[in-house]
């Protein structure tokens, strides 16, 4: 039985861990949140009080889901991090959303110590994590390494895509979320214009979904209140993907674009809009709540 050590039991990590347990993997967990650890141990996981203790049993795989690049670097290459405590070659999977440059830098240090490391950020949100339907964008050095991570990722995801070499998983995630932010803002702008001109929101949404303006946001995750059931817009923009997290991802896109000298014209504007929205105290609202920036002007 594959033994997995998991670090990070937040909104995404915890449901991923539960699905690994359901799939029959032997799971040990570590998180600074004692309550999150307690919930997983109650469901069959073992726990550790530190990274050193977590890795003492020499797991086959280390899987992490962490908030930001600084946390990934600290957890893996810090003085008390993963690389300092592994005693044999281990498969490392980081599913955090970070910049490609950090992902490659950390993976290079892991490789130098004899470990295989992949970046495997996800798309699908907390609902996808709970349902086991996430999309994993995997940056792996070769096909063999990708094949090694597939069994674990298939236990928590529906679509597992080998994007290329190390770091390309993060490239795919950055590009996808950049487009998502822009399309959500565009849909919000179009909807508020149409309603201001006197059209019924539900009818306009229907027309868009039968026309060339159709997109994922219009079909699956509509931002206009009460147009679609079971989306954040119909429950006060609670739950889902927080606006402050979208702002973080747009910052990663900006940082990555600067690294290669690639202009981000619409991306830069999207980042400014979300930055203002978060500064106005709406960071915890779902990112589709950006439509309120248009509605407030009327």
Question: What does this 3D model show about the protein?
Answer:
This protein is an alpha/beta fold. It contains 14 helices and 9 strands. It has a 6-stranded parallel sheet, with helices on both faces. A 3-stranded mixed sheet has the order 7-8-9.
Q: Please count the helical segments.
A: 14
Average pLDDT rating = 96
Calculate the terminal CA-CA distance, rounded to whole Å.
Answer: 60 Å
Radius of gyration: 20 Å
**Helical content class:** 40-55%
Q: Give the strand order, joined by hyphens, for the main sheet.
A: 3-2-1-4-5-6
Low-confidence parts: none
Basic shape:
globular
Which structural class is indicated by helix and strand composition?
A: alpha/beta
Could you describe the largest sheet, including whether it forms a barrel?
6 strands, parallel
SSE series: EHEHEHEHHEHEEHEHEHHHHHH
SS elements, strand count: 9
Sheet-strand content, in percent, reads 5-15%
State the gist of this model.
The protein is an alpha/beta fold and 298 residues long.
Main features:
6-stranded parallel β-sheet, 3-stranded mixed β-sheet, 298 residues, 9 strands, 14 helices, single chain, alpha/beta
Strands, helices and their partners?
Blueprint (H helix, E strand, L loop, with lengths): L2 E5 L5 H10 L3 E5 L3 H9 L3 E2 L3 H5 L5 E4 L4 H9 L4 H4 L5 E4 L5 H13 L3 E4 L2 E2 L1 H7 L2 E6 L3 H12 L2 E8 L3 H29 L4 H9 L6 H5 L22 H18 L4 H18 L9 H4 L3
Parallel strand pairs: 1-2, 1-4, 2-3, 4-5, 5-6, 8-9
Antiparallel strand pairs: 7-8
Helix pairs in contact: 1-7, 4-6, 9-12, 12-13
């Amino acid at each position: 039985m594959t033994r997995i050590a998991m670090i990070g039991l937040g909104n995404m990590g915890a449901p991923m861990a539960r699905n690994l347990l359901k799939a029959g993997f032997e799971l040990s967990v570590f998180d600074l949140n004692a309550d999150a650890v307690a919930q997983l141990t109650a469901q069959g996981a073992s726990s550790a009080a530190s990274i050193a203790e977590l890795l003492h049993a020499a797991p086959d795989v280390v899987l992490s889901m962490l908030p930001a690049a600084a946390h990934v670097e600290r957890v893996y290459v810090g003085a008390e991090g993963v690389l300092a405590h592994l005693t044999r070659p281990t498969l490392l999977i980081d599913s955090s959303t970070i910049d490609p440059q950090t992902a490659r830098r950390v993976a290079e240090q892991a490789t130098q110590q004899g470990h295989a490391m992949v970046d495997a950020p996800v798309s699908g949100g907390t609902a996808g994590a709970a349902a086991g339907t996430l999309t994993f964008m995997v940056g792996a050095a070769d096909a063999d390494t990708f094949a090694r991570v597939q069994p674990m990722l298939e236990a928590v995801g529906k679509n597992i895509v080998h994007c290329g070499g190390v770091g390309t998983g993060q490239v795919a995630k950055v590009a996808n979320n950049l487009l998502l932010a822009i399309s959500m803002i565009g849909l919000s702008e179009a909807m508020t214009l149409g309603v201001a001109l006197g059209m019924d929101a539900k009818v306009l949404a229907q027309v868009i979904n039968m026309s060339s303006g159709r997109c994922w946001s219009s079909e699956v995750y509509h931002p206009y209140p009460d147009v679609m059931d079971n989306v954040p817009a119909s429950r006060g923009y609670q739950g889902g993907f927080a606006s402050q997290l979208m702002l973080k991802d747009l910052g990663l896109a900006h940082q990555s674009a600067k690294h290669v000298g690639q202009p981000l014209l619409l991306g830069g504007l999207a980042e400014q809009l979300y930055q203002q929205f978060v500064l106005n105290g709406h960071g915890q609202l779902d990112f589709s709540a950006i439509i309120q920036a248009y509605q407030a002007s009327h």
